[in-house]
Amino acid sequence: MSARSDSRGDPTDGCGYEAVRDGLGRVLESPGFAASPQLRTFLSYVVEYRLQGIGARIKGYTIAVEALGRDPSFDPAADPIVRVEAARLRRLLDEYYEAEGATDPIRIDLPKGGYVPRFAHRRTAQTGPTSPTSPALDKTSHLPVGDRRRARRRVAYGIGAALSVLAIVLYFSAPQPAPPSGTALTSGDADERPASGTDIAVFKGQLPIIHVAQIAEDASTSLPPGYSGATLRDKLTGALSRFDEIQTGRSPEEADYRLEGQIAADGKRLLLNFRLVYQTSNEVVWSSLFETSVADESPDLVQERVARNAATAIAQPYGVVFNHVASQAPLQAQSEEGGQTENAEGLACVLRTFSAQRRFSPDTNARSRACLASLAARMQAPAAVHALLPLAYIDNVRSGADPAHRAEDLQTALKFAERAVALSPKSARAHQALESVLIFLGRNEEALEAGRRALSLNPDDPDILAAHGSALVMSGEAEGGLELLVRAARLSPDHPDWYATMTVFAALAAHRPDLAEAEAQTLARSTRPTSYLARLLVAHERGDRPAARALLADLRAANPAFVGNPQAVLGSTVPSIQLRTRLLEAVSQADRASP
Q: Least buried of 15, 69, 120, 589, by fewest C-beta within 10 Å?
């Protein structure tokens, strides 16, 4: 039987990929599963493997090693951990579907006697029998818009939940209608961590350090010519080094994380297993299986693509490593008490900045700027600190949080961005910062040149893609900007809401109302002025006057400055004159609409 086959035919049991993943998301969000990271990992692992059509690989040994982080020497006969956890999982699933999941349209079960999950439609009093759903595909991106919304929710489960790499695979290869080719998994219950909380929060640098270990070659298979563990290791190290907030190239003893893996071949398919280990606790915080064809591409290109896939999942600002670092409560407490080491302080600054960008609040942003400025003034801070400082100022400007100081903030941001580029000419984040400042200053050509430089230094960082896409949109190049923004959203499931805001503006300018509508729905909880404006513009474009008027009222309630002088607010937050004109017309019509 092929590794891609499944003895039951349709791996979704007739429920549909989107419906099953949506059902999985609801289960993982429930309080019972939120309290058990190891069971979240277990369930995510077996569901994703089943959906990939490789249910035959779901065995006690693979679950123990690949999902639960046991050593490859694990003996299922001697250690009952998988059977024990499977029993717990079955009980928790039963409890979930008897309580908060009573009306879920899809049920996920783990039949006794095995670990391959089953999926079934459920009949409820409210809805009757359910039917499979087909995801609506965005014609430009070929990515189900529902997948993006669900992926953003799933990152909130914490590091114990699965982070799907579907988006990354779609970015680097042709779109496929099949389920994702890899799933990022984490493991380790809280009660398995060291008893001393301070030990687990020890990081060895101001930024996380990753050691890329030797990639083992499976001795039981014969690799095609041109493929090797050594080549893949070199490419992984190179791909990770493009991310400014990650350090590589250290010895194992100096690193916070160890990235290890195995490469094997199955006919014309290459099979690669990776896992990222947090060395302080020996906790597996991420693992992933990649499968790819070796038939029509050069070995160099295939291994490069796989390395970039893995590096992007691990090292991006809102990805695996920084989600794991943020989960280390002792580090956060240490930082707040002011008694932290310089390394912990630097790492806490970076985390606070990412948090402020992802879920903006004026207070968090102000603390982020103060923290970064203090570090940057000492000159021993890494390049990423200097580059993130102007981006924190720009995020404040973008959000319209302090319009009275906009001009001053922009000049301060420009000074810091130019300094970051001068200190680190090969820092992709520094050039991204310069682009973001220049576009708000109306220096569009210079901004786009800085953005192109950032992309050349790191084409895999979603923030860099989104920043350049936004600059293109604000410069009147909506089609090119939309393409980059969609790619950025695929790569970063838990991205900041300004990605979606700019995608709405780009989609409307590119005559893609379907995509604009979908992205606007993801902004329902955002309180940024531009988020309200994006939703208002969508309502205006579809002729929904009541909805536009309601959104205008919400905008004014959340941002009183918008009541008296909307032109000033728009002038502060929207660099494009054409877009400002369009937004003012939508606001004017909403204001005239009958209540």
A: 120
Query: Where do we find the tokens 């580029």?
Result: 421
134 neighbors 16 (Cβ within 8 angstroms): yes
pLDDT, tens digit, for every residue of 239-278?
999 999 999 977 889 999 999 999 998 877 888 889 999 9
Q: In angstroms, what CA-CA distances link 103 with 58, 98, 122, 465?
A: 29, 9, 8, 40
User: CA geometry: angle at 273 spanning 272 and 276, to 5°?
Assistant: 135
Residue 530: exposed, middle, or buried by beta-carbon count in 10 A (0-12, 13-18, 19+)?
buried
C-beta separation of 506 from 465 below 8 A: no
- Interior CA angle at 88 toward 82 and 94, to 5°? 135
**Parallel/antiparallel/unpaired status of strands 269-278 and 257-266:** antiparallel
The rounded distance, in Å, linking the Cα atoms of 173 and 202 is: 38
pLDDT at 202: 65
Quickly count helices (H) and strands (E) in the chain: 27, 11
End-to-end distance of the chain based on CA atoms, in angstroms? 65
Q: Please report the pLDDT score of residue 99 as a whole number.
A: 85
Planar angle of CA 391, 395, 399, nearest 5 degrees = 170
**DSSP symbol at 192:** G
Which parts of the chain sit beneath pLDDT 50? 1-8, 124-200, 329-340
Please report which helix (H) or strand (E) contains residue 375, including its range. Answer: helix 362-376
- Are 365 and 353 contacting, i.e. CB atoms less than 8 angstroms apart? no
Three-class secondary structure assignment of 241-302: HCCCCCEECCCHHHCCEEEEEEEEEECCEEEEEEEEEECCCCEEEEEEEEEEECCCCCHHHH
CA distance 460 to 471: 17
Tokens 């090119």, located at residue: 480
The tens digit of pLDDT for each residue in 105-162 reads 999 999 988 899 999 998 643 444 443 333 332 322 223 333 333 333 333 333 233 3
Q: Which of 343, 315, 511 is nearest to 429 (CA)?
A: 315
pLDDT recorded at residue 452: 97
pLDDT, residue 198, reads 34
| Whole-model pTM over 0.85 | no
- Phi, psi (degrees; rounded to nearest 5) at 12: -100, 0
In this structure, are residues 260 and 479 in contact, taking their beta carbons and an 8 Å threshold? Answer: no
How far CA 258 is from CA of 38, 64, 307, in Å, comes to 20, 19, 15
Q: What is the per-residue pLDDT for 341?
A: 53
Q: For residue 269, what are the β-bridge partners? A: 266, 293
Per-residue exposure over 136-169, b if at least 16 CB sit within 10 Å of its own CB, e if not: eebeebebbbbbbbbbbbbbebbbbbbbbbbbbb
CB-based burial label for 285 (10 Å; 0-12, 13-18, 19+): buried
In the block, residue with structure tokens 């991204």: 432
Contact 390, 417 (CB under 8 A): yes
Q: Is the dihedral of CA 169, 170, 174, 180 positive or negative?
A: positive
Strand segments (E) across 134-175: 163-164
Beta strands 118-121 and 106-109 are: antiparallel
88, 437, 473, 498 from 465: Cα distances, Å: 42, 15, 12, 13
pLDDT of residue 434: 97
